[in-house]
Amino acid sequence: MTEPEDARSTGAVTVRDPAEAARRLDALIGAENLHAAADMVEALPPSLVVDVLERSGARDRAVVFRLLPKGTALVVFEALDPPLQSELIRELHADRVNQLFTDLDPDDRAGLVDELPAHVATRLLRELDQDEQALTAAVLDYPTGSVGRRMSPEFVSTHPDVTAGETLERVRRRIDHAETIYAIPVTDDQRRLVGIVGLRAIMRAEPGTPVRDLMNEAITARARESAEAAARRSADERLIVLPVVDDEHRLVGILTFDDALRILEDAETEDTARAGGSEPLRRPYLATPVRALVRSRVVWLLVLAFGAALTVQVLEVFEATIEQVVALSLFVPLIIGTGGNTGNQAATTVTRALALGDVSPRDALRVLGQEIRAGFTLGVILGAVGLAVTGLVYDTDLGLVIGLTLLALCTIAATVGGLMPLLAQAVRADPAVFSNPFITTFVDATGLVVYFLIARAVLGL
Amino acid sequence: MTEPEDARSTGAVTVRDPAEAARRLDALIGAENLHAAADMVEALPPSLVVDVLERSGARDRAVVFRLLPKGTALVVFEALDPPLQSELIRELHADRVNQLFTDLDPDDRAGLVDELPAHVATRLLRELDQDEQALTAAVLDYPTGSVGRRMSPEFVSTHPDVTAGETLERVRRRIDHAETIYAIPVTDDQRRLVGIVGLRAIMRAEPGTPVRDLMNEAITARARESAEAAARRSADERLIVLPVVDDEHRLVGILTFDDALRILEDAETEDTARAGGSEPLRRPYLATPVRALVRSRVVWLLVLAFGAALTVQVLEVFEATIEQVVALSLFVPLIIGTGGNTGNQAATTVTRALALGDVSPRDALRVLGQEIRAGFTLGVILGAVGLAVTGLVYDTDLGLVIGLTLLALCTIAATVGGLMPLLAQAVRADPAVFSNPFITTFVDATGLVVYFLIARAVLGL
C-alpha cells in the first residue's frame, strides 16, 4: 500500500516532462554516455522513471533499469505492467532477478508469475525462502482473474475479545510487515471473519474496551470472486481494506484500496478498448509495437466488416428503387449515421448506469419505457428538422421520406441501444463489447430497410 | 472519509436487490401502509436505501427519506448526487433541513449550495453556528469545479520540529474532528506545507523523533486547480490524502481518497457520455425524467446530423458516377462504416493513453508514426479481403475499387483518429468529446471522396 512515506522525493530534478526525460536519456544511451545517464536517472523521482520506461523501447528500458539504485528499482519495477516486468526479467542478470523477485510483495509476485514462461517462474519460486514461498503459494492457489490472486496475504488481524489496547500492541508488532494497519479485520478462534475495525476507532477507545464493542460488520469478497467485481465493491463503498475470505468464511487476505484502484484501471482500459471496437493492449501505448496494435484491432474490424456486408445485401434488394431515384442514395450515410448516433447515445448511457449499479437487467421494462419515449421525442425533433430542410432544399416528397425515416429510426435505435447492454449483462457478456459496434451494424441494416420501405410508400415506387 | 466503522450494518434484512426493495416500498407507500414501510426502511442497510432512492420518483423519494432514522438519514443524504439532495430539501420540513445542513461536512455542504436556489442557500448558511459558517465559507471561496471547493477544511497537521510522540497526542485530540488521521500534513510556522507523514511512520518511530526526520515531500494540489486533475493525481499516486494549498503554498485543506474517487466517478460519467455523443445526466438513470434524457442528447444529435449533411453534398458531387454504376452505392455504408471503426479504434486507444498519462500532445510525432503504420497494415489486410470477396461475388474491377479504397481509408482513418485526441488536448478541449463523433463525420466525408475518386480512376468513368 503506497503511503505518503513512499512519496517520490524530487531532489535536484529539473526535467519533469516524461517525453523530454525519455528523449534525453535515449540520447545519452545512444552516445554510450552511461555515466551521465546514471546521474540523470538517479535524480529522477521514481514515478517519472516509470513514465520514461513506459515510453522506451525494450533495449533502452533494460539499460535504464540497470542504472537504477536498488531501492528505487524495486519501487519502479512494482509499478510496471506485468508484460513489461516479464520483458525486463529476460534482460537482467540472474542474481538481480532473484533479488527483485524476493523483494516483491506476494501479490505482485503472483501477477508476474502469470506472465513468465513456466520454467523461469518455477526456478524463481524455488529460490524463495520458505515463508515467502508459502505466502506466494497461498495467492497462486486461486485462479487468474480472481481477487484471491490479487489480494495481499500479509495483514494484521484481531479478535473480538481482545481489547483496543492489546490490538494497538499487535499493530505495533506487525507494523513493518502488514500491507496496511488502518483497517483491521476481526476473526474468531476458527480464523473466520466476524467484523472489521478502523485504527481510528481503536485509538479513540478506552484501552480496556473489547474489540467486539468497536467492530462493524465487514463488507467482504470471496477469494474466487472476480477481482474486478471485488475492486468495484471496494471503490463503491470507499473502503481502505476489503477483507477476502475463503468458502468457509475464513480470512485469507486483504485487498487494499490502491490494489483495487489498479484492478479497476486495467478493467477500464479493457472496457474502453472494447467499446471502441478493439482489444486492450495490456501495456502502455508507446511501448506497444505496431504489430501488437494491429493484432488488437484487426479481428474486430473484420468481424464488423462482415457484419456490414449485411448492408450491401439490404441495398441490393432495393437496387431497383435506387436506380429509379438516385437522389435517395445521397441520404444513406446521413440516415444510418443518425441512427447509429442515437443508438450509441442510449447504449452509452445505459452501459454507464449498469457500471455504476444504477440499473440492472431486472429493470429492462423501465429502461424500455424511458428509451421508447426518449427515442420517439428525439425522432419527432430530428424528423421535423429533416422534413423542413430537405423539403426546402430538394422537394416535399423527399422531405417527407427523410422526416418519417428519422422519426421511426430514432425510436428503434434508442430502444435497441438501451436494451442491448442489459441483454449483454443478462447473458454475462461484457456490455461494453456487445453494445456500440453491434448496435451500429444492426441499426445500419434496419435503418436502410426502414428508409427504402418508407421511400417506396411515399414516392409510390 | 468512510472508514470501516461507518460500514453498513445489515441487521435482519432479507431484501438485497434494490429493484425488488424499491418495488416493495412503492407498493407499501401506494397502499398508505407507512408503518410497514418504516419498518422495512429501518432494516435496510444505508447503501441499499441509497440505491432505492436513486430509482424512485421524486414523491416516493421524499416519503422514504422521511421514514429514515436520524443517523441513517445523514449517511444516506451524503451519498446522494447534489441534484437529488436539492430536490429532497424542497420536500422536507424546515427544521429537518436545518438539522441536515448543520450535520453535513463542509465540503458536502458546499456541493449542495451549488444546487440550491440562492435564497434557500443563503437562509441555510445563516442558520449555521459561527465555526461551521467559517469552515463552509473557506470552501465556498473557491470556484465551482476547483479542488478547493471539494476539499475538506477539517484536518490534523503537525510541524517539523514536533516529535512523533507529540504528533500522536495531536492526532488523539483531533480524532473526532479531522476528516482522516492516516496521513498528516506537516506545516511550518507560516502554515506553509513542507511535507507529509503517514500515521504508520509516526507510530513506528521512537516517540522523541522529530517529524522532520520522518516526513516526505508531499504531492499537492493548488486550491484553484480543477478538482478532476487533482483527483486524478491522487488516484494515480494511490494517496490516502492529497494536501491542498493556496497560492502562497499554505495548507488550506485535504482531499481524501474517497472524495477523489467520487470526483473521478463523476468525471468518468461525463467522459463516457460525451464519447457516446450526449451530455452527462448528473443523476441516476432511473431518476432521470424523459425530457432530461432528450435534452442531454438532442443538441449533439443535431450537430452531428448537420455535420453528416456534408456527406450528402459529397455524394451530390458524384451523383453522375452513381447513376452510371449504381452498384457503387451498395458499398457506401460498408466503406464509411469500416473507416469509422478504424478511426474510432485509434481514437479510443489514444484517448485512453492520454487519460492514463502514457502519451501527451508532445508525443504527436511518435503517435503519428505508430498509427500510419498500424493503419496501413490494417488497410493491407482489409483491402486484400475486400478485393478477394468483392472480386469473387461481383467482378474484379469493383473488387479493385473496394480493396484500394479500404487500403487508403484505413491508413487515413487510423492517422486522423490517433491525432485528433492529441489535438483536442492541445487546445484544451475534452479529448473524449472531440474524438469519436467528429472522427466519424470527418472519415465519412473523406471516405466517400476517396471511394469515388478511386472508382472513377479504376472504372475509367
TrEMBL record, chains A, B:
Which residue windows are transmembrane per the record?
A: 298-318, 374-394, 400-424, 436-459
Outline the extent of the CBS domain.
151-214, 217-270
Q: InterPro entries under this entry?
A: CBS_dom, CBS_dom_sf, Mg_transptr_MgtE_intracell_dom, MgtE_N_sf, MgtE_transporter, SLC41_membr_dom, SLC41_membr_dom_sf
Annotated keywords: CBS domain, Cell membrane, Magnesium, Membrane, Metal-binding, Transmembrane, Transmembrane helix, Transport
Q: Where is the signal peptide?
A: none
* Job description of the protein: Acts as a magnesium transporter.
Q: Can you name this protein?
A: Magnesium transporter MgtE
Q: What is the lineage of its organism?
A: Bacteria, Bacillati, Actinomycetota, Actinomycetes, Mycobacteriales
